[in-house]
Structure formats: structure tokens, C-alpha cells
Write a structure and sequence with these properties.
By secondary structure, the chain is of the alpha/beta class. It has helices at 15-22, 62-65, 74-84, 98-110, 124-141, 162-166, 171-177, 201-219, 243-256, 308-313, 333-348, 351-365, 367-371, 400-410, 432-450, and strands spanning 41-45, 48-51, 56-59, 117-121, 149-153, 185-187, 223-228, 232-233, 239-240, 259-263, 287-290, 302-306, 375-381, 384-389, 413-414, 421-424. The chain folds into two domains: 39-72 and 351-450, Aspartate Aminotransferase, domain 1, CATH 3.90.1150.10; 76-348, Type I PLP-dependent aspartate aminotransferase-like (Major domain) (Aspartate Aminotransferase, domain 2, 3-Layer(aba) Sandwich), CATH 3.40.640.10. The protein has 15 helices and 16 strands. Helix 4 packs across helix 11, helix 8 (201-219) packs parallel to helix 9 and helix 14 (400-410) packs across helix 15.
Length: 451
């Protein structure tokens, strides 16, 4: 008689170990977790995350730049729960619902109705794909099919789906997937860090715009659109530039009949000091993408906003003239309800005005970094603060980002450096004490890593 086979009870293993066996984590070399264990998070409250051992971790990067108003925010929770009692999801093809209509109208109003039409998706890269495809299709409808190439900035990042990755200039991605990607034009970044002694950010912006104009003059007949992250190239080591660059680009795009795509997935929703980063330059793009903070870090939601002119080009009796793109969860009611709750918080709590004070407190908490000889290029744009570690302070073959991540966790703070760039991008709800605590914790962690 055969004995019953004993099947191991995987639930007896720690769930961090189970995660390593079953979950393939994003942008991660899984082997590294043999020496850098995963952090098991059980819950969050306000600006804090809590692991399975009860340790509190200050979420200074807003959980990959998504969380604006804290974890388990009661107002956002209530809005989602109220919507859950009505309808959790319905396809947006042939149907509509109140949350997606109200969200579209309110976002349009925030652009003074310059961008009056909203197409929804689920993640930032998908929103970029929408903008690229919509621009390409527009020019086909205008009988200019040769206008199908795109322009992006050096060191820019716009996502990891194939279209978005084509306009991303990050070496590690292009080395792995470059053979799959469309050819694009890459132009110099207006990164203010490249300024020489006596040069201003505006001078660098002007120089970058001049290089762009040379390209446009030669190749405009085959260029559909240019894509740029306004003011801050976030994944590009938090490179910051003058609003003057955006003004110059807008003028050049108008002159040469090229669309301007503003990727505000990371820099939108108040992160730079205004709701849209483009507002600093007093311009509006032809396409504007949002994700991350638009739902307060709660649910996957992204969108692409565009103009009446572009919308009307697709308006026809012919199906093939419509914009042929869809996502199963387009305009999900729960995600839209979360986004509407966030817009309510912006309005009722005067968030943009309060963030001016928050940004000043953040600068004060990191004032020590300005005087530290190991640090260069201290910079800030609203609720984004960054600085670079001098290369000579890092050992050859260093693993500084991982070491800084671990040292910061030991100090109770979540920091995720990009190369030798340390940045903070916290939720907007930090108290003055929490901001001060953040600055001191990062300083202590850095001292340990560089000791």
C-alpha cells in the first residue's frame, strides 16, 4: 500500500523567504537579496511604514514617488469605500460613470481648459505610449505619415514598455533591450549641473535649446513629437533645469510643427511647487501625462491629456480614424474616486501653498549637506531635494546605493539613491519634527557609509 506523499507546508516558511521563491521583483537583480534581505511591510500610517518586526520606517520617497497624503489616509479610504458600494469597475468602451467624468472635467479646469480631453490607462509607461501613438496617428491623419520619429533628452526616463523605453536614455535599459526599440533623436539635457563657473541654469537651458533648434531645422519633416520631463529628470539622477528651457522648446515646437509631450508622471500633482510643472514656464504642451501621485499612491491610474485640435482630428464616421488603443481597466471607478479625493485635499487644505513652507523646512533640514565637502550639486525644486556624492569619496566598484539604502533603514528612513545621487521626495503631510528627523537620519546614514 502506497503511503501518502507529504507535501511541505510552505506557509510555515517566513513570508520574506516565500516572496523570494515566488515573486519576481521589479528592476531587481534577485541574487542581490541573498545579502540584502527584502523588507516585509505589514502596514502603513501617515508617512510611516511598519515592518513585520514592528520597526517604523519614514517613507521619504513616497513609495516610488506615488504617495502624496500618507498611507491609510482616512479621506481617501472613505472615498474608495463609498465608490466600492456603487461599482468597482466597468469597461469604458461604450460605457461611462460619474467618477471618470468628474475627474476629467476637474483636471481640464486645472489646465484652464487648454487640455480638455483625457484618455485613461493604468500606469505611467502606458500613458507615455498613448501620447506617442496619438501623436504618430495624428500626423497620419494630417497626410504627413513621414512625421513618425521622436525626440528625447539625454539621460531622460519615460518608462519601460517598448515605446516609452525608446525615448528613455538610460544605458542599462538600452544595453538590454536596445535591439527591440525604435530609433529616436536624443538631444542634450539642460541639466543645470553641467554649468561651468559663472554660468547660470538659464545659460545651460539656452545652449540646450540651440542644439534642439539645429535638429529641428534639419529633421522637422520627420519628427512627430518631443518628450520631456518638465523641470526635473527624476530617474535621471534628479537632474534639474530652468523653466526657460520649456519656454524655448514650446516656441520651437510651434515653429516647426512638432508636438510637445510633457511627461509629468513624477513631477506633476504639486511635486514641483505648482500642480503642473509646466506652469512654472507659463506654457502648455500638446500632450500631458500623469500617474503616480494622481491617485495618492493608492491604485494604478494614469492618463494622457490633450488639446481640442488633436481630439478633433480623430473625430470621424470612420472607425479606423479613431484612436485605436485600450486598456481593460481604463478609467477604473475606484482609482478615479481616489484621485478625486486627492483633488479635494489639494483644494480644501491649500496644499500648494502649504508645500511652499514644507519645501523651506526640507531645505533647512538638509542645510548640512550644502557645507559637506563630500557633497556636490545640492539642488531643490519644490518637494524634491537632491545632492550628489563626490566620485572621489566612493570606492572603486562600490555598491553605494545598496549600502546607503541599508544604512538609512537602520536609521528608520527609506532612502533609495540613484547612483551617487541621494534624494528625498516625501509625502506632503510630514510634520516639522519629521522633516528635521529625516535630515538628521540621512546625515547619520551617510556618515556611516562613507566612514
Amino acid at each position: 500500500m502506497m503511503k501518502n506523499k507529504v507535501i511541505p507546508d510552505v506557509n510555515q516558511k517566513p513570508w520574506v523567504e516565500r516572496s523570494l521563491e515566488a515573486v519576481w521583483h521589479p528592476c531587481t537583480q534577485m541574487k542581490h537579496h541573498e545579502s540584502f534581505p527584502l523588507i516585509a511591510i505589514t502596514h502603513g500610517k501617515g508617512a510611516w511604514l511598519y515592518d513585520e518586526k514592528g520597526n517604523a520606517i519614514l517613507d521619504s520617497i513616497s513609495s516610488w514617488w506615488t504617495n502624496l497624503f500618507g498611507h491609510s489616509n482616512p479621506r481617501i479610504n472613505q472615498a474608495i469605500n463609498a465608490q466600492l458600494e456603487k461599482i468597482e469597475h466597468v469597461m469604458l468602451a461604450g460605457f461611462t460613470h460619474p467618477p471618470v467624468v468628474e475627474l476629467s472635467e476637474r483636471l481640464s479646469a486645472l489646465t484652464q481648459h487648454n487640455l480638455g480631453h483625457v484618455f485613461f490607462a493604468s500606469d505611467g509607461a502606458s500613458a507615455v505610449e498613448i501620447a506617442l501613438k496619438m501623436s504618430h496617428h495624428f500626423w497620419q491623419l494630417q497626410n504627413k505619415p513621414q512625421k513618425k520619429k521622436f525626440v528625447c533628452l539625454a539621460n531622460g526616463y519615460h518608462g519601460e514598455t517598448l515605446g516609452a523605453l525608446a525615448v528613455t536614455d538610460v544605458a542599462i535599459f538600452r544595453e538590454a533591450y536596445g535591439s527591440l526599440l525604435q530609433d529616436v533623436f536624443t538631444v542634450p539635457s539642460p541639466d543645470a549641473r553641467i554649468a561651468k563657473a559663472g554660468e547660470s541654469a538659464e545659460v545651460i537651458a539656452q545652449q540646450a535649446a540651440q542644439a534642439l533648434e539645429i535638429l529641428f531645422a534639419k529633421e522637422h519633416h520627420q519628427i512627430a513629437a518631443m518628450i520631456v520631463e518638465p523641470l526635473v529628470q527624476c530617474a535621471g539622477h534628479m537632474a534639474m533645469h530652468s523653466p526657460e528651457y520649456l519656454r524655448q522648446v514650446r516656441a520651437l515646437c510651434d515653429r516647426y510643427e512638432i508636438h510637445l509631450i510633457a511627461d509629468e508622471i513624477a513631477v506633476g500633482c504639486g511635486r514641483t511647487g505648482k500642480f503642473f510643472a509646466c506652469e512654472h514656464a507659463g506654457i502648455w504642451p500638446d500632450f500631458l501625462t500623469l500617474s503616480k501621485g494622481i491617485s495618492g499612491g493608492y491604485l494604478p491610474l494614469s492618463l494622457c491629456m490633450t488639446t481640442e485640435k488633436i481630439y478633433r482630428a480623430f473625430y470621424s464616421d470612420q472607425t479606423q480614424q479613431g484612436f485605436l488603443h485600450s486598456h481593460s481597466y481604463t478609467g477604473n471607478p475606484l482609482a478615479c474616486a481616489a484621485a478625486l479625493a486627492c483633488l479635494d485635499i489639494f483644494a480644501s487644505d491649500n496644499i500648494l501653498e502649504k508645500n511652499l513652507s514644507q519645501a523651506n523646512l526640507l531645505a533647512d533640514a538638509f542645510a548640512w549637506a550644502k557645507a559637506d565637502p563630500r557633497i556636490t550639486h545640492w539642488r531643490q525644486q519644490g518637494m524634491i531635494l537632491a545632492f550628489d556624492i563626490q566620485e572621489q569619496c566612493l570606492q572603486a566598484g562600490n555598491i553605494f546605493p545598496r549600502e546607503m539604502f541599508s544604512a538609512s533603514l537602520a536609521e528608520g528612513v527609506l532612502i533609495r539613491p540613484i547612483g551617487n545621487t541621494i534624494y528625498v521626495m516625501p509625502p506632503y503631510i510630514l510634520t516639522a519634527d519629521e522633516i528635521l528627523q529625516l535630515g538628521k537620519a540621512v546625515q547619520r546614514a551617510l556618515n556611516k557609509v562613507l566612514a
